[in-house]
């Protein structure tokens, strides 16, 4: 069975108001251009869910972890990181997650998202001031940790076995745990 959603079209492009409900993670906006991604592979979802499960119990009450939660930059730009850590109070007060409230964005690289996850999203996330960006490569298995420095992400660490990070919380795990 095929499902189809019809979105209104405007010569000026789409805005966040035109997108389907928040729960849909296959839609993103970049400068009012609508991006639709294919459903991710099972290992992609497993890795994102496992990372969510690792982070969730460790976060202080002021922070919350989200899995495939949409993040607003402005009316013309909307992204859905695979995993994000954000200010609980700011999200509640605004009724949505806004990019400046995010302290960590994580993308799991899929065959259909290589350029987006390695180039486009880091540039957009850095411009929004998100302090940390993690890119999880699945083939070969690798976690690349970036930190924001002077408005640009710099590679802070690269893990292909045991991961040890201090931010947003101290965390240690075997990278293979994300695919078990």
Account of the 3D structure:
The protein is an alpha+beta fold and 180 residues long. It has a single domain (39-179), classed as tt1808, chain A, CATH 3.90.1570. It is 19% helix and 36% strand. It has three helices and twelve strands; from the N terminus they run E-E-H-E-E-E-E-H-E-H-E-E-E-E-E. It has helices spanning 42-55, 88-94, 114-127, and strands at residues 27-30, 33-36, 63-67, 71-74, 77-79, 83-87, 102-108, 132-138, 141-149, 152-159, 162-165, 171-174. The strands form four sheets. It has a six-stranded mixed β-sheet with strand order 3-6-7-8-9-10. Strands 1-2 form a two-stranded antiparallel sheet. It has a two-stranded antiparallel sheet with strand order 4-5. Strand 11 and strand 12 (171-174) form a beta hairpin. The radius of gyration is 16 Å and the shape is globular. The relative contact order is 0.14. The model has no long low-confidence stretch (mean pLDDT 90).
């Amino acid at each position: 069975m095929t499902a189809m959603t019809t979105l209104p079209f405007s010569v000026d492009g789409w805005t966040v108001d035109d997108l389907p409900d928040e729960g849909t993670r296959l839609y993103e906006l970049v400068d009012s251009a609508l991006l639709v991604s294919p459903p991710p592979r099972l290992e992609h979802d497993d890795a994102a869910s496992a990372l969510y499960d690792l982070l969730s119990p460790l976060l202080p009450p002021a922070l919350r972890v989200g899995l495939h939660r949409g993040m607003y930059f402005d009316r013309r730009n909307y992204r859905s990181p695979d995993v994000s850590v954000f200010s609980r109070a700011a999200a509640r007060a605004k009724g949505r997650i806004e990019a400046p409230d995010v302290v960590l964005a994580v993308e799991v690289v899929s065959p259909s998202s290589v350029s987006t996850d390695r180039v486009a999203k880091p540039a957009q996330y850095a411009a929004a001031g998100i302090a940390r960006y993690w890119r999880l490569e699945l083939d070969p298995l690798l976690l690349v940790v970036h930190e924001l420095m002077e408005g640009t992400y710099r590679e802070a660490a690269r893990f292909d076995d045991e991961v040890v990070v201090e931010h947003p919380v101290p965390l240690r795990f075997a990278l293979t745990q994300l695919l078990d």
